[in-house]
Amino acid sequence: MKSVIVGTAGHIDHGKTALVKALTGIDADRLEEEKRRGITIDIGFAHLDLPGPGGETLRLGFVDVPGHERFVRNMLAGVGGIDLVLLVIAADESIKPQTREHFDICRLLSVRRGITVLTKSDLVDAETLDVVKLEVEDFLRGSFLGQPSPVISVSSLTGAGLDDLKRELVKAAAEVPAKDSQALTRLPIDRVFTMKGFGTVVTGTLVSGTIRKEDELEVFPGGKRVRVRGVQVHDAPAEQSTAGQRTALNLAGANTEELARGMTLAPPDTFRPTSRVDALLSLLPSAKPLKDAARVHCHAYTMEAIAEVRLYSMKQMKPGDEQYVQLRLAEPALLLPGDRFILRQFSPVVTIGGGFVLDASPSIRKQPQVEVATLLTTLMTGSPEQVLEARVKHRGVAGLRLQDVPGEMNVRMEDATRLAKAAGLVWCSQVLVAPSAFASARGMVRQTVEKFHGANPLVAGISKEELRERTRIGPEVFQSVLSMMVEKKELEVAGELVHLPGRGVVMKDEEAESKKIIESAFASAGLKVPALRDVLAGLKVDKTRAQKIVTLLLRDKTLVKISKDLVFHESALLELRRQIAAYKTKSLRIDVGQFKELTGITRKYAIPLLEYLDRERVTKRVGDAREIL
Asked: Which of 214, 233, 266 is the last residue of a domain?
């Protein structure tokens, strides 16, 4: 069975709801107010099964939309996921304002197929019907509803023309490409209500993927998790719903106050809501010029939000123009590349244009306008491999995580992996980077190390973390670059320090002399060491260089700092360990007094040295004494 969504469009009171009822036997007006006033206020739904070519059954899901200008926002909530449109025009009134606006909306949403229906044909004579038909054909000429698309005259009251319309529906529906039930699931919510005995129910047109009982889904943009307790397709219980079907879900984990029209259900941990998108915008010829930073109403599927339009290459768009823009939404929403949208003027609220999303994860654009245009053109016209390559290249040395590709490109993980391999990208663990960016990162690392050596001759190398921070390379990319450069002997790593091959500390004569003086002062002092500041004060080098020499001695463990103010030579501490080991043959415990007597030092040195021995697990404090381990 093939499922196709058919949407109505047209002016108020031109017979859209009556036509749907005549075709399906279902009254799509469900609200009491709609029945009382005789007009459609909100979207309604019906369905019809027809025999298709080759014995296949075609299930047509009808989305009936309001025609009144005050309810165009409701009309937009229903028309986003349709496969073909019935443009309904009353024979006794011909083309009216909402006929034009609804027709513009369908074109902007890139609806490719449809049938024009002249309703109320029983209210006019044959001559008038012919004139109206000519007017309509002239209005539609050159559009997707122009010839050879049919114009069918019907009467919902008498049934005239309905069989002809059904035949044309079968022909048009058979040409609609099947939606991808294996794609990532998305269900824009158009209704939320409570059903007695079931609880929370949402409905919508499943635009992609498959939803089954017990599936876990995420509600966007809020991020709440829900579980599917039950599925209905076209008002009948089902084990699953597939792309292109009108779907109702009984949900556990959320109440009606937490859900609303405009939200979207999708797989958990896959997508991210966004507040800005880069897009291609087409402005209607009938619209007023659109200024940069203009506020508009943005509609996509069932979502509606206030947005600001930022123009990339001009201060103002002319009517009929097509330009790259960035839409900045007042509220986050789930939008993906390829999603169509409609813009309506902020006030008065009329349709002014529409287009489709190119990038729902745009970074802050700092590149020249020509580079932005090149990127967006690739996103619009490139193959999937080229699109991924462009996205990764745009990230520079930060790279793009493989796990983020499905959400950014609306592809499955297995497809993301395949595209990454086909695009020839560099894999840095699970981060993708363009070959040119990887080469750039390599050059940046080498240049930074060379510059560090030049500025710090008394330091053996730059720490890995400082090197990464200076180059601003992503962690995974940095580690891959560093590993490759070490493998190719372009760099060497000693512990946490990175340096050029064979490059060590370079000292001038006075610096080398100062190093000997410092080392000698502490080596000769034993455990009765002088204050470090006093030793440094007698050197010929300045304070900064003297401190770097000390740092070098500490790094090489020639000197050992055991407290804030005390530094000892390594030989003195080795001798202390030998003394403690010898003392252990006489006693397993030693107190402060005995330690002072053993070493011949004062309490000033004894306490810090005992604490040092505790840290080194040579001794263990027990009360006021130490146990020798």
From this structure: 266
pLDDT tens digits for range 10-54: 998 899 899 999 999 988 765 555 455 555 556 788 889 999 887
Q: What is the DSSP string of 507-542?
A: --HHHHHHHHHHHHHHHTTTTSPPPHHHHHHT-SS-
How many angstroms separate the CA atoms of 537 and 359, rounded? 62
Are residues 349 and 434 part of one domain? Answer: no
> Does the pLDDT value for residue 197 go beyond 90?
no
Q: Which residue has the tokens 């699931």?
A: 185
The residue range of the domain holding 11 is 2-175
DSSP one-letter string for 608-628:
HHHHHHHHTTSEEEETTEEEE
Give 497: exposed, middle or buried? Use CB within 10 Å, 0-12, 13-18, 19+. Answer: middle
Tell me the average pLDDT across 357-365: 82
Q: Residue 179 corresponds to which amino acid?
A: K
Distance CA 84, CA 64 (A): 12
Task: List, as one string, the DSSP characters of 221-246.
Answer: TTTEEEEEEEEEETTEEESEEETTSE
Does position 453 have pLDDT exceeding 90, yes or no?
Answer: no
Residue 411 lies in a domain: yes
State whether residue 444 is helix, strand or coil: helix
- pTM of the predicted model as reported, rounded to 2 decimal places: 0.77
What is the rounded distance in angstroms from the CA atom of residue 483 to the CA atom of residue 461?
16
Residue 529: which pLDDT band, with cuts at 50, 70 and 90? confident
C-alpha–C-alpha distance, residues 560 and 554, integer Å: 6
Dist CA 363 CA 53 (whole Å):
48
Which of 72-76, 429-433, 498-502: highest mean pLDDT? Answer: 429-433
Which token pair is 522? 């502490």
Q: Is 180 a domain residue?
A: no
Can you give the pLDDT at residue 522? Answer: 87
Indicate the SS3 state at residue 467.
helix
CATH number of residue 569's parent domain: 1.10.10.10
pLDDT for res 34: 44
pLDDT per residue as tens digits for the range 461-490 = 898 999 999 999 999 999 999 999 999 999
Establish if 182 belongs to a structural domain.
no
In the prediction, which pLDDT does 75 show?
72
State mean pLDDT over 136-140.
95
Which H or E run contains 427? strand 426-428
Q: Which helix (H) or strand (E) holds 600?
A: none
Residue 423 has φ and ψ, to the nearest 5°, of -80, -5
From 407, 405, 410, select the one nearest 390 (Cα to Cα). Answer: 405
3-state DSSP of 286-350: CCCCEECCEEEEEEECCEEEEEEEEECCCCEECCCCEEEEEEEEEEEECCCCCCEEEEEECCCCC
The string of DSSP codes covering 53-105 is GGGPEEEEEEEE---SGGGHHHHHHHHTT-SEEEEEEETTT-S-HHHHHHHHH
| Model pLDDT, residue 373 | 86
Assigned domain for 344 exists: yes
